[in-house]
Amino acid sequence: MKTRYKTILVAADGSEESHFALKRSIELAKTNESRLVITHVVDYRNYSRMQLYSPYVLPAAEEKGQVILDECKEIAEKSGVSSVSISMQQGMPKSKIPKEIAAEFAADLIVSGASGAGTFEKFIVGSVSGGIARHASCDVLIVRDNPERKYQTIMIPVDGSDTGLDAFKKGIAMAKKSGASVVIAHAMHTPMVSSADHYRDHILETFKENGEKLINEYSRMAKEEGMEDDKLVLSLQAGSPKLILPKETAHRHHVDLIIVGASGLSSTERFFLGSVSEGIARRAACDVLIIRNHQ
C-alpha cells in the first residue's frame, strides 16, 4: 500500500482546533511533498433564517471565510509548502468536505480539528470531525493537540483484519520517518464470557494466548520493516477496544497519535453505535488517524 500522501485537504474555520489542524497538515505536506488544499465551508443552515432579515449576512460570512483562507494560505506558503490551493464552498461541512471537496481535489488525506458537540448531539449526530471521519472514503486525521513537535509515540491497535493491517503498515512507515516509538495494542473483547460460565477461565486463557500470538506476529513484521526492538511496546488488555484503547492504553503509554483501520458496520449499527474506529476517535485525548486506503 502507498505510505505517501499526494494531496492533503485541511478544513479551516478560524477556530483554535482548525489552526492546530493547519499546522499539522503543513508538517505532513512538507514531509510527504504533498499538495495542500485548504477549504472553508460556509454552513448555509446557520444563515438561512437570518437571510430573511438581512441580505448581507451570507455575503459577510463568505467574506470572513475568504479572509480565513487567505491567512491560512499565507501561513502555509511561508512555512515552506510548495503547492497550496484554497477552496470556499457552501453546504454542510461534515458531508460536503468528505464527499464532494475531497473528490474534487482527489485528496487521499483529510485533516480536521476535533470539533466539539454536546454529549447527546455527539451520540446521535456527531461533530463535524466525526461526520468527516464517517463519510470520507480516504484517510482522515483528527487533530486535538497543538502540534509543537513531531509525534513521539504512535499506538496502532491490531485485530488481524485487512484494514488493521493497512493501518499497521502506515503507522510503521510514519514511525520510521519520524523516529517515533510504536505501541502495538490489542484489546481482548470478551463480552460473551459469563462470570458464571464453567469454562470461563479456559476461554479467557485462550483469548490471552491468541492475543499474545497476534501482537507478537505484528512485532515480528515491524522488525522486518526496520523498527528497532527498543522502539516497540506490546500491549494486551481485556475490554472493549473502543473504550479501553483510547483511554487507558493511550494514557498509560503517553500516546500522541493513534492509527486505526476503519471498521465497517451496517448504516443502522453505525448510526446508533459507531464503529470501533469512530469510538476511538471520539474518546481519544490525542490525535487519531483513520486509515481507509488500500492501495
Description:
It is built from ten helices and ten strands. The chain is of the alpha/beta class. It folds into two domains: 137 residues, HUPs (Rossmann fold), CATH 3.40.50; 139 residues, 3-Layer(aba) Sandwich (Rossmann fold). A ten-stranded mixed sheet has the order 3-2-1-4-5-10-9-6-7-8, sandwiched between helices. Helix 3 crosses helix 5 and helix 8 packs across helix 10. The termini are close together.
Summary?
This protein is an alpha/beta fold and 295 residues long.
Strand line-up of the largest beta sheet = 3-2-1-4-5-10-9-6-7-8
Q: Looking at this structure, what is the CATH superfamily of the largest domain?
A: HUPs
How much helix, percentage-wise, in residues?
40-55%
- Structural class determined from secondary elements: alpha/beta
Q: Please count the helical segments.
A: 10
Instruction: Tell me the distance between the termini.
Output: 4 Å
Q: What is the string of SSEs from the N terminus onward?
A: EHEHEHEHHEEHEHEHEHHE
- Poorly predicted runs are 116-126, 264-273
Task: Assign the CATH class of the largest domain.
Answer: Alpha Beta
Report the biggest beta sheet as strand number plus sense, adding barrel if it closes: 10 strands, mixed
Please tell me the overall pLDDT. 84
- Quantity of strands, as a count: 10
The CATH architecture of the largest domain can be given as: 3-Layer(aba) Sandwich
CATH topology of the largest domain: Rossmann fold
Organism: Sinobaca qinghaiensis
Pfam families: Usp
Domain UspA: 5-144, 151-292
Protein name: Nucleotide-binding universal stress UspA family protein
